[in-house]
Amino acid sequence: MKKIFTLIAVAVLAMGAQAQEKFLFSPTETYTDGQVIEASASVSVTIGPDGKLAKKNFTAGETNAEFAQTYTNADGEETTQIVYLTGGNNPKDGALDGTSSTGSGYKPESMNNPQSGTFFVLSTKKAGAMTAGIILNSGKSFYLTKSDGSAIPTSEITFVTPEGETIQLDENNQSADKFYGLVKFQAEAGESYYLFCTGSKISFYGYIFTPEGGGEELPPSNVTTDPALPVVFDTWEANFLIPKTDVKAGDKFVFTCEAIDVAGWEWGAQVLPKSNADWSDLGGAIVPNAEGLATFVVTEAFATIINENGGLRVQGMGVKVLAVNYEEGEAPQPETPDGDTESIIDRFNYTWNGAETIENNADGTLTFNSASWGGMAAWLASEETGGADWSGYKKLVFEYAEPTTCNTQGFVQTATPEDITYWGDAGITKLECSLEGKNVSAVNQVALQTSDPVKLVIKAIYLVKYADETGIEERVALQLDGNAPVYNLAGVRVNKDYKGVVIQSGRKFVQK
C-alpha cells in the first residue's frame, strides 16, 4: 500500500453565494484513493492514497457540535458521530518513494511545505473566515502554512475546544492534551493553506467558510430537489430531480444560479431542463440573466411530460444552482375571439433551397423539413393583385403541433422597403406576428424561417381579422398618401415617369 495522503479542498465563493459553505464527510460513503468529491457548492475534495475514514460517537466535551451528524446505523438506531479522515504516514517534503514519504519534516526557517504523507490543503478564491475541524495528538507541533511555506503565527490562529473555550498552543505549537477542536483563521483570496503536524498524522473532519461580508442571502427554494441544493454543474454527468408532478401550462421554474469556471467550456452558464422519460431536452438550454435567474416556462406539452414522468430533471454546465422556486401562472382562460380567421396554410408551397421539403399531411397539418436558416414561403404577388391586401388583418399566426426545438421567425415581405419579422424562441407552440400599425396593403410574400435543420410540424397558419369590420376603410384611408412610394406589379419601386399599372398605398391604377 502506498504511504501518502493528501487532501485538497478548494473553496470558491463569489457574489450571490450562500452566507456559509460547509463540508462534512459522510458516514455512509466509501472514500477511495484518488477520489475527487464534489463536496459542496464550490468545494472539491481530492482524496490521496492511504486515506482512512474513521468515526467517533459525538460526546460533548470531546467533539464539536458544528461538525456532528446523525445517521441510522445497521440496527436502525440513530447515531450522532464525527466523521474524520486521516492518513498513514507523517508529512515530508520529499516525493513518494515506494510506500513511504521521503525527505524532512517541516521547519519554519526552511519553509519546506510537505509534498507527501498526511496533510490537507484549503485553497480559497475569496477572502473570508475559515474554520477547520481537526484532531491533533498531544505533544505534536501543529502548523498552518501558506503556499510559499511561510508559517502563520499561532497568535493569528484561534483554537477552540468543544466547550467553546479558546486555548493557545505552547512555544512549540503543541497542545498538552489531545485536541478535538476548531482551527479558525482569516483566509486571503487566492491563497492556499496547508494544515498538518510534524511527527504524526493530523485528522480532518470538515470546514466552514464564510466569505467577507457574509455573501448575499438567497431566496429559499420552495420545491424539493434531489440531491439537495446547491448543485455544481462542471461536467454533464451532474443532474438533479425536482419531483413535482402537479405542474400546468403557464407555471414557471425559476433557478437562482451562479456562473463557475469550467476548463474548456466556452458557451457560458446554462441550465438544461430535461424529460425524465428519455432525457430529451425540453426546449433547449437556458442562460441565466444578469441577476443569475434562469426561467423555464411550462407549456401544455411540457406539463404532460413532467407530470407523467415524476418531475423535472435538470442538467447544466458552467453553473451552480443555488435555489429553485416554482411560480404558479394564472389559470388558462379561453381565448377571446378577436376577429374571424382566414387560413393560408395551403398557400405555403415554396422552399428557399433544394435541400428542404414541404409535406401536406392527411390531417391538414404541414411538415417542413428545413436546412439551417431554412425557410418555407407563400408567394402572394401576381399581375392581377399586385400583392395581397392585408389591411383588414391584425395579426399572422403560426401554430406548431409540438414545442419547437429551435428558434423560428415569421417573415412578411411587403411592397414597402420595411419587411416585418417576428422572432420566436425554442419551446413555443405559437408564433404571433402583429400587423397593427404596419403598411400591409400590398404583401408580396410570407415565410417561416428556422435557425437549425429541423423537422417542424405546423398545424395551422392563419390571419386574424379585426373584430370591427367597419373600421377597415378608415384604417386603409390612413395609409393612403399621395406621397407614398409607387410600385409596379412586380413589386419594384418606380418613379412618376413609369407608364403602366402601378400600386400606391394599396390602390391599383394606371399611371400614364
Q: What does this protein structure show overall?
A:
This protein has 512 residues and is mainly β. The protein has two helices and 39 strands. A six-stranded mixed sheet has the order 3-4-1-10-16-12, with no helix packed on it. The longest helix is centred in the middle third of the chain and has 9 residues, at 300-308. It is elongated, with a radius of gyration of 34 Å.
Residue share in helix: under 10%
Strand content: 35-45%
Strand order of the main beta sheet, please?
A: 3-4-1-10-16-12
Q: Determine the N-to-C terminus distance.
A: 102 Å
Overall geometry: elongated
Instruction: Give start-end ranges of low-pLDDT stretches.
Output: 1-18, 333-337, 469-482
Radius of gyration computed on alpha carbons: 34 Å
Helix vs. strand class: mainly beta
- Report mean pLDDT, rounded to a whole number: 79
- Largest sheet composition: 6 strands, mixed
Number of strands: 39
Short description:
Residues 1-18, 333-337 and 469-482 have low confidence and may be disordered. The protein is built from 2 helices and 39 strands.
Task: Describe the secondary-structure layout.
Elements: E1 5-11, E2 21-23, E3 36-40, E4 43-47, E5 52-57, E6 69-72, E7 78-86, E8 96-97, E9 100-101, E10 118-124, E11 128-136, E12 142-146, E13 158-160, E14 166-167, E15 179-187, E16 191-197, E17 203-211, E18 231-233, E19 240-242, E20 252-259, E21 270-274, E22 293-297, H1 300-308, E23 312-317, E24 319-327, E25 341-343, E26 350-351, E27 357-360, E28 366-369, E29 375-379, E30 393-400, E31 408-414, E32 420-424, E33 430-434, E34 443-450, E35 455-465, H2 472-479, E36 486-488, E37 493-494, E38 500-504, E39 507-511
Parallel strand pairs: 1-10
Antiparallel strand pairs: 1-4, 2-17, 3-4, 5-7, 6-7, 8-9, 10-16, 11-15, 11-17, 12-16, 13-14, 13-15, 18-24, 19-23, 20-22, 20-24, 21-23, 25-35, 26-29, 27-28, 28-35, 29-34, 30-33, 30-35, 31-32, 31-34, 36-37, 36-38, 38-39
